[in-house]
Amino acid sequence: MSAVPVIAAEGATVVLDGTTLLAPTTFAVMPGEFRCLTGSNGSGKTTLLRAFLGSRRPTAGAVLLRGEAVDMARPRHRRLVASLVEPVPVARDMTLREQVTLVAASWHGNTTTTAVRAEEIIGRLGLTALGERFPSQLSSGQLQLFHLALTLVRPADVVLLDEPERHLDADRVDLVADLLAERAGQGTSFLVATHEAAVVAACDGVVELG
Amino acid sequence: MTTDAVTEVEADPRARVHAVRHRYAHRGGGATVQDLAYTVYLTVVLGAVYVAPVVHLVRTTRALLSLESAAAATPVACLVAATAVWGAQLAGRFWGPLVLKPFLLHVFMNTDLPPASYLGAIVRRRLVYAGLGTLLVVGTAAFLATDLFDHPGSGLAPQAVAVTVGIGAVAPVAWLWGQVRTVRENALLAAAVAAAATAVALLGRSDLPAGGGLRLLTGVLAVGAALLGRSAFRSVPTVDLARLARESARAAEAQTFAFTGTLHHALDLYRPEPRGLTTALTRPDGRLRGHLAQGAVRALRTRGRATAAAVFLPAGGALLTLGVAEPDAGWATPAWVAGAAGVYWGSGWVGETWRGLRDELTRAPLFGGRWGGTPARTLAWPVVAVTVTVGLASGATALTRWPLQDGGPAGVTLLVTGSVALVLGARFLREMKTNLPIGLLLPIVTSLGDLSGVRIFVWQFDGLFVVLFGVLVMNELPTAPGAALTALGIAACCAWAGLRRTGRALRPLLTRL
């Protein structure tokens, strides 16, 4: 295992108009580590994830990606990080399978890998039977699984997720937690903001905020 | 899967971009050959039925603008070129050539592909289309509105064509520049364009040999297009992707509104968010400020709109006054119409309270059935701001033209007052607009075909149509009091129609107000 953390926060703090959105926070996530972020509403979980995505700049301290300050304008940083933090725009005129395959194609081109990866993630998230549906024909929970499929179909060294358990029943939460743990075992790091005990139980460690 | 697992063959950027675009283009929602053929068919039919007679009529009557020499044509060409560049810059700030479908952009943004690899081809294609469109519009306008092409032997026609091509080349790159460069850089470019246009116009009227002005302008446009294009394209790789994603999401939503007949909802998406003055609505002791102060504070929270209103209202008032004060001048009616339109636009930008009025009258009340004071709360600021600003500008303009022609100060005051009342009525009508009434979709069968599309078009811009129609009617009336009374009548009709748009019975509504 490399000694350089994939992502790290060093006293990262976010203050906006005098309001502290994220109190000073320090931790590191190593390659293949599955780490959960917990804490009450407003404790700064989403703010911290946004800081790692470069959409919220820390007012003090730093957030690092492979030891460098996060800068999503750099292709290398975009290559390393996948995320489901902000709402994902979907194409209303493409089926679930077409959209997941399109994301895979953005990494693998028109190769067999594209179809294999797309079918694999669709199957793992229990979406195979829904592959020919359009987004408007999915329930809230199915949409959440679809968004997870769009996020996880691409290769990434670190995946940031904000409450992946949203709208999911207990069985689906277990399914997602198992998938994340399996991916972590294959070398992908995870930082997951969650309130769900099943996800916390599946992770390697917890960062408690607030 | 980590990124190390992606092989070099798979990671070829061109292949990846091609794969995504190919799959997206074949998603099933794109236009088919039949769709395109039907569009061409409709265009040909509409062109033959509506456009061809107009072209024939215009070509067989005297040209609107007589440009018999290069010296006369150069300033006009400079003005057209500068306006095209400014318009393109402004369009780029709101809807630039880099705007993509949100999902497609999201897919590309979440890869390590450099932005130029997936935006470059799209931008080049759009700029070519925009260039051809500009060429067509400017060329058609020059052909119809001027006599540049009436004298083939004069040598002006080839130069006019060259200038038109130059405008067609520079406007698209200014469009891209408007999107990828900062507001400050855009302001600098706009100022530089104004300076260059003025210099070329002055040179074209004075020292240069015959036709030199237009040739100089063509050269300036060619050099400008090359420099601007090079600079704008260099900015594409470093474009702010987060901002582009926001612009694309907004554009997609606006497109949906526009396609479903509610253009005003689409325009609402481009209203700036209020910023600053967060505690200014209340006095230090906690009491709310007065209606006028509240309206002013809310207007100042969107400073861009307030600034635009501060420019358009006095300018519109001055133009309006010039138009009514010198009725014998050839430019009187255009000045009156332009001034009224300027005041109309300014009146919408001067206050955010118009929207509060519509919401209070059309949505379920939060605090019981009686509203009380809604008109004072919502209308006090915009009405006072418009009338005072236009009144001051009008007074200052009238003083510069003293003594006034015809009806004297009384006549001018009546006409300006009537115009302002007309504009406020039209603005009220516009602001009370909600969703497209289904009844407007019913066909209007005439010998020229179904004209329901024209009715929907008029509904989209009803306030502006009322202003234009009202001013033209006022202009035709022989006396100032008659014109002012007519304007007041139209304004009252607008107020009545605006209140009807709330969907409530008029009498109970007035009682509750």
From TrEMBL, chain A:
PROSITE patterns, per the entry: ABC_TRANSPORTER_2
SMART domains recorded: AAA
Superkingdom to which the source organism belongs: Bacteria
Residue span, ABC transporter domain: 7-210
GO MF assignments: ATP binding; ATP hydrolysis activity
InterPro entries associated with the record: AAA+_ATPase, ABC_transporter-like_ATP-bd, P-loop_NTPase
Coiled coil: none
Pfam families from the UniProt entry: ABC_tran
Keywords: ATP-binding, Nucleotide-binding
Protein name: Multidrug ABC transporter ATP-binding protein
Protein source organism: Streptomyces gardneri
TrEMBL record, chain B:
Protein keywords: Membrane, Transmembrane, Transmembrane helix
Key word Transmembrane present: yes
TM segment ranges: 36-58, 70-91, 103-120, 127-145, 157-178, 187-204, 216-233, 306-325, 331-351, 379-399, 411-429, 436-459, 479-499
Protein's UniProt name: Uncharacterized protein
Lineage of the species this protein comes from: Bacteria, Bacillati, Actinomycetota, Actinomycetes, Kitasatosporales
